[in-house]
């Protein structure tokens, strides 16, 4: 009996396969790949675009303005969908592919799935060197696409049409695996895209994918329960993995039931609402005094779904030297950090099983009220910094307060780089779960506006993305304002114009270096001047308004909620006023310098390093 086959080109087969992959979200069957962000060039326009054009009603293709930004939009879409539905970002060869490497790094650092597809050189090498080909004299197989190897969880180059039969399922399995989740990259040789092949019909049969939920080892659960039961001042750190596991409610219930305060990482912020009774604020360098105080006293830390980045741990200075960690994580690599008791498993299932193993145990009944009191003091401090005053220049804190006040419960706040992440992590009071996206694993300048596009697609009208961005990052990547106007995906963009790269200027001066090459006034320029962001945004089809005061900002935000397209609001913001923080950060400071200010900063840095918890 002959095998049933379908004869199509490799590019056509790839697209047909993607169209037949599905996922289930809240009981509803949906396409696993919701669409493609694409920029076509000679490496993909003649074959891949031909295949995508024929299925555009099933697998829509959205034209980006920049390869990096469209991949960032795809990443934000996946984050908004909590890694259950994905997007593709497709580009030609050479510079188009290289532009996506930054986005791949962003996805990799944040454990987020995106399928990156780039054209490649010719497998047969006959026309070499082709346009946009880099040539390595000692290795003719190397192309720009090899750069993705360091920032991809899965990497492949297709030089024969039948290779996608094994490659595509592996790529998808990697992107959906909670332990290995991250970007998958596939390079398509130009001559391989055009080749027709008799593919097995079974390859194109519809498949429904689900996210695996690995259970933890029973012995480790017993050990974790015993360690918690012996704790006098336990603390829960809720990370991004809590959100991706849909464990928000269970972790919150667990905390209240057991009387353990919850503090949040940047990626984990928004798993619970700001006013939840167990919530004690964000932890770490851009965290709250309440969370950091609790961390400094904690004897057992239950870290759930976090990779314990330095901004969470204060470069490992916020904890006691002898504090013990229980780490619940789907990824073994993350679970074993800092001599933690590694409980490798899905956050939701593991917390449920740990709860069962704890029996009737509860933490000291005074612990949660103490955390609530510390958090109340933190909220008073926020109120003071966010209060509307008659100062000459609005502060970030005041801007965050007004934008937060005028946002609707389902609006999503988006930030990524510069001074904004610290200010929103500290000062944004989450109204509904999963409405906060601060990309601070890679701190990728340029993520914000592109991410607004991705979130707008994912939200589908259920709330509006609100992008908070500094003038420096806005200048780096803003073209997706135009994208959202073209496609009808509305977002609100708040541009805080503080005259350059203000937060890195703050760090520079804090470590003893005079202001240099960060604020525009300190750069090698003929004459400093301010960009007219209103005119710039309007030139891309957006609505825009400049604010002269905090009262103007509130009025403008209320207006922006009523508009029918992307709306940009800009105002001058203080470059030197920040909400205080009390955690340390380990950065390099010159060991030798003629500057007295640097010498003092070096001495202070050595004191920080003496406080660090030594781990692995």
TrEMBL record:
<protein>
    <submittedName>
        <fullName>3D-(3,5/4)-trihydroxycyclohexane-1,2-dione acylhydrolase (Decyclizing)</fullName>
        <ecNumber>3.7.1.22</ecNumber>
    </submittedName>
</protein>
<dbReference type="InterPro" id="IPR011766">
    <property type="entry name" value="TPP_enzyme_TPP-bd"/>
</dbReference>
<dbReference type="InterPro" id="IPR030817">
    <property type="entry name" value="Myo_inos_IolD"/>
</dbReference>
<dbReference type="GO" id="GO:0009099">
    <property type="term" value="P:L-valine biosynthetic process"/>
</dbReference>
<dbReference type="Pfam" id="PF00205">
    <property type="entry name" value="TPP_enzyme_M"/>
</dbReference>
<dbReference type="GO" id="GO:0000287">
    <property type="term" value="F:magnesium ion binding"/>
</dbReference>
<feature type="compositionally biased region" description="Basic and acidic residues">
    <location>
        <begin position="596"/>
        <end position="609"/>
    </location>
</feature>
<dbReference type="InterPro" id="IPR029035">
    <property type="entry name" value="DHS-like_NAD/FAD-binding_dom"/>
</dbReference>
<dbReference type="Pfam" id="PF02775">
    <property type="entry name" value="TPP_enzyme_C"/>
</dbReference>
<feature type="region of interest" description="Disordered">
    <location>
        <begin position="596"/>
        <end position="616"/>
    </location>
</feature>
<dbReference type="GO" id="GO:0050660">
    <property type="term" value="F:flavin adenine dinucleotide binding"/>
</dbReference>
<keyword id="KW-0378">Hydrolase</keyword>
<dbReference type="GO" id="GO:0102481">
    <property type="term" value="F:3D-(3,5/4)-trihydroxycyclohexane-1,2-dione hydrolase activity"/>
</dbReference>
<comment type="similarity">
    <text>Belongs to the TPP enzyme family.</text>
</comment>
<feature type="domain" description="Thiamine pyrophosphate enzyme TPP-binding">
    <location>
        <begin position="421"/>
        <end position="569"/>
    </location>
</feature>
<dbReference type="Pfam" id="PF02776">
    <property type="entry name" value="TPP_enzyme_N"/>
</dbReference>
<keyword id="KW-0786">Thiamine pyrophosphate</keyword>
<dbReference type="GO" id="GO:0030976">
    <property type="term" value="F:thiamine pyrophosphate binding"/>
</dbReference>
<dbReference type="InterPro" id="IPR045229">
    <property type="entry name" value="TPP_enz"/>
</dbReference>
<dbReference type="InterPro" id="IPR029061">
    <property type="entry name" value="THDP-binding"/>
</dbReference>
<dbReference type="GO" id="GO:0019310">
    <property type="term" value="P:inositol catabolic process"/>
</dbReference>
<dbReference type="GO" id="GO:0003984">
    <property type="term" value="F:acetolactate synthase activity"/>
</dbReference>
<dbReference type="GO" id="GO:0009097">
    <property type="term" value="P:isoleucine biosynthetic process"/>
</dbReference>
<dbReference type="InterPro" id="IPR012001">
    <property type="entry name" value="Thiamin_PyroP_enz_TPP-bd_dom"/>
</dbReference>
<feature type="domain" description="Thiamine pyrophosphate enzyme central">
    <location>
        <begin position="223"/>
        <end position="353"/>
    </location>
</feature>
<dbReference type="GO" id="GO:0005948">
    <property type="term" value="C:acetolactate synthase complex"/>
</dbReference>
<feature type="domain" description="Thiamine pyrophosphate enzyme N-terminal TPP-binding">
    <location>
        <begin position="36"/>
        <end position="132"/>
    </location>
</feature>
<dbReference type="InterPro" id="IPR012000">
    <property type="entry name" value="Thiamin_PyroP_enz_cen_dom"/>
</dbReference>
């Amino acid at each position: 009996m002959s095998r049933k086959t379908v004869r199509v080109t490799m590019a056509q087969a790839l697209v047909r396969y993607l169209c037949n992959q599905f996922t289930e979200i809240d009981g509803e069957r949906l396409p696993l790949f919701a669409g493609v962000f694409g920029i076509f060039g000679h490496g993909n326009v003649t074959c891949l675009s031909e295949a995508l054009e024929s299925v555009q009603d099933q697998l829509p293709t959205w034209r980006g303005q920049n390869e990096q930004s469209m991949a960032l939009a795809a990443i934000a879409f996946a984050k908004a969908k909590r890694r259950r539905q994905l997007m593709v970002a497709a580009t030609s060869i050479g510079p188009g592919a290289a532009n996506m490497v930054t986005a791949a790094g962003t996805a990799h650092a944040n454990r987020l799935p995106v399928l990156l597809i780039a054209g490649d050189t010719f497998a047969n090498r006959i026309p070499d060197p082709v346009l946009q080909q880099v040539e390595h004299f000692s290795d003719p197989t190397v192309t720009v696409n090899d750069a993705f190897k360091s920032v991809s969880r899965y990497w492949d180059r297709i030089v024969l049409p039948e290779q996608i039969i094994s490659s595509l399922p592996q790529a998808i399995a990697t992107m959906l695996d909670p332990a290995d989740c991250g970007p998958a990259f596939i390079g398509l040789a130009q001559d391989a895209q055009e080749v027709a092949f008799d593919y097995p019909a079974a390859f194109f049969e519809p498949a429904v994918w689900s996210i695996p939920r690995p259970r933890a080892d029973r012995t480790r659960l017993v050990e974790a329960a015993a360690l918690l039961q012996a704790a006098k001042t336990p603390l829960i750190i809720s990370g991004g993995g809590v959100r991706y596991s849909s464990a928000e409610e269970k972790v919150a219930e667990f905390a209240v039931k057991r009387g353990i305060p919850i503090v949040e990482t940047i990626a984990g912020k928004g798993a619970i609402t700001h006013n939840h009774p167990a919530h004690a604020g964000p932890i770490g360098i851009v965290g709250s005094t309440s969370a950091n105080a609790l961390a400094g006293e904690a004897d057992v830390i239950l870290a759930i779904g976090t990779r314990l980045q330095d901004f969470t741990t204060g470069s490992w200075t916020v904890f006691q030297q002898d504090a013990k960690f229980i780490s619940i994580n789907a990824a073994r690599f993350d679970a074993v950090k800092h001599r933690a008791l590694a409980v490798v498993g899905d956050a939701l299932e593991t917390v449920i099983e740990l709860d069962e193993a704890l029996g009737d145990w509860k933490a000291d009944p005074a612990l949660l009220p103490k955390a609530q009191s510390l958090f109340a003091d933190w909220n008073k401090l926020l109120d003071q910094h966010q209060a509307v005053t008659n100062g000459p220049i609005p502060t970030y804190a005041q801007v965050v307060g007004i934008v937060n006040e005028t946002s609707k419960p389902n609006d999503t706040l988006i930030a990524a780089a510069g001074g904004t992440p610290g200010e929103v992590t500290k000062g944004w009071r989450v109204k509904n779960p999963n409405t906060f996206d601060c990309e601070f694993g890679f701190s990728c300048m340029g993520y914000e506006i592109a991410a607004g596009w991705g979130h707008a697609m994912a939200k589908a009208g259920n709330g509006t993305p609100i992008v908070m961005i500094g003038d420096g990052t806005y200048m780096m990547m803003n073209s997706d304002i135009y994208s959202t106007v073209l496609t009808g995906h509305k977002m609100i963009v708040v541009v805080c114009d503080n005259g350059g790269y203000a937060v890195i200027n703050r760090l520079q001066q804090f470590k003893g270096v005079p202001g240099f090459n960060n604020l525009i006034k300190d750069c090698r320029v003929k004459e400093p001047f301010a960009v007219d962001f209103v005119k710039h945004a309007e030139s891309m089809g957006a609505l825009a308004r400049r604010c002269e005061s905090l009262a103007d900002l509130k009025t403008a935000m209320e207006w922006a909620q009523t508009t029918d397209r992307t709306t940009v609001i800009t105002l001058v913001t203080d470059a030197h006023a920040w909400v205080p923080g009390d955690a340390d950060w380990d950065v390099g400071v010159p060991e030798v310098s003629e500057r007295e200010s640097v010498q003092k900063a070096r001495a202070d840095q050595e004191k920080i390093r003496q406080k660090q918890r030594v781990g692995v």
